[in-house]
Amino acid sequence: MTLPLFHVTQWFDNSGNPLANGKIDSFEPGTSTPKSLFSDATGATALSNPVILDSAGRAQIWMKGGYKLILKTSADAVLTTLDQVNVAVGGSAGVITSRSSATVTLAATSGAAILTASALVPANRRLLGAWTKNTVGLGTSQGLTGYNVGSHGIEDRWAANVGTALNTQTTNGNFQLSEQPVSASARDIEIRALGGTFDSVGSIRIDVEFEAGTIT
Questions:
Q1: pTM for the full predicted model
Q2: Are residues 80 and 172 in contact, defined by beta-carbon separation less than 8 angstroms?
Q3: 1-97 in CATH: which number?
Q4: Which residues neighbour 139 within 8 Å (Cβ) at sequence distance 6 or greater?
């Protein structure tokens, strides 16, 4: 039996810095019962629980079935919780066996309520994660107090990022792997203004990860 790989290229703290020596606690879905993650695809060797990220905030982990994952700083401050993360075993459709990523930087546009990264997620790929970071601080002359991140065709929007500083890295928030449908067409990622609209100052980088294989 070969287990599917689940990993995030790099985790960040709420200030946009790599989560050096951060921790990932793993549990049975919806519970506080610990459940092991594994060091390779054979599933023969369990990792420590929590898994300790490296100095760049990275880790590679293999999963067996469903999990609840809690991401923490090295000082055990909780950053985000992902529940009902379900990864099947055996290579059938829907298995997460590898990941791809895409990045784009959007410039703020005066008067815009939404900034759109068009077709950032390819067709027939399940979106696994979305993060943002301001590469240039955003202006607030048109009432902007924050923004959130979402995808057209998905009703909820993730990772509300409120505050006039607007210079932090967003995490997945309530964004869960098991809830994201596969779209037959390429998917846009949207940045929606809160409190007002964008002015002409600033830019936002969007990073996404999605399943590398086409799902039909």
A1: 0.53
A2: yes
A3: 2.170.14.10
A4: 108, 198, 199, 200, 201, 202
